[in-house]
Structure formats: structure tokens, C-alpha cells
Amino acid sequence: MKKLENERKFLVPEEKAKDLKSKAVKKCGIVQWYLDSEKTTRIRLEIWKEITGFRHVWTKTVKVKEEGSGIRPETEETLDPQDIKLEELKDNPFVMKIRYFLQEEHPEVILDEFMLEKHPRTKLRKKLLALRN
């Protein structure tokens, strides 16, 4: 699906982030791999808590870098999990985060909490367990 993204990013102080997270209407865990040095192509795994367990959504996104306005075209496609080659992703840079949805209607408002620690597996496990609560 092709669309235009008009993204604005802000750093939020920890206390304000805590308050915003408590007001989230939903949240998901995300692991996102960057496939090129410009970070324009990425593979994202979204992990959603469902009543019966967890749902996994794989997406590939290509963003066109444009200087200036902050509005940029992007193409996004859902991937079949059978087509994901984890062995090929393992050497690419990645981020892990919890995405909190504060407002779903236009404009969508989200808060991303990045998980930065020396032992990312431990942090990811703790954060994903938090999704269960």
C-alpha cells in the first residue's frame, strides 16, 4: 500500500511518558530491522496481545528520503511469516520498542518506548511479559 507519511517526532521526559503510557488505548511490541544504511527499508515484527495468545504481523516498508517538509512517500506490504528468513535479518541493525497508541483516528498519535540495555533479550522478555498484564 502506498501512502504519504507526515511524521513529527518529539523527545518526551520520563514522567510525561509514564503519564501518556497510562492513557494508551492499545499497545504492541515491535522488533524492527533496517535493511540499508540509510534506514529507508525495514522489516518490522509487531507482536499483539490477543485473548487467545499473541498475534504476529510482519511488514516490509520502504520510505523515500526527501529533504525538508517531513512528508514522505512510503510503500508498506504485509509479509507472509513463511517468507521471513531470520538468518538473513540477524546481522542487520535493529531496534526493539513498545508502541503505545494514544489516539488512533487521524492524526494517529503514538509513543514509542525504546528498549536499550546491554542484554536486549532480557529486556525484550521483560517488556513482552508486560504486554500480558
Walkthrough of the structure:
With 133 residues, the protein is α+β, with helices and mostly antiparallel strands. The protein has one domain. It is built from 3 helices and 7 strands; from the N terminus they run βαββββαββα. It has helices spanning 14-22, 86-89, 120-132, and strands at residues 2-6, 26-34, 41-50, 53-63, 71-79, 94-103, 109-114. It is globular and about 40 Å long.
What's a concise summary of this model?
With 133 residues, the protein is an alpha+beta fold. The chain contains 3 helices and 7 strands.
Structural class call reads alpha+beta
Shape: globular
In spatial order, strands of the major sheet run: 1-5-4-3-2-6-7
Q: What is the share of helical residues?
A: 10-25%
Major sheet description: 7 strands, antiparallel
The figure for the number of domains is 1
Q: What is the H-and-E element order?
A: EHEEEEHEEH
Rounded average pLDDT: 83
Distance between the termini: 33 Å
Helix count? 3
Radius of gyration: 15 Å
- How many distinct beta strands? 7
Task: Please name the defining characteristics of this protein.
133 residues, alpha+beta, 45% strand, globular, disordered C terminus
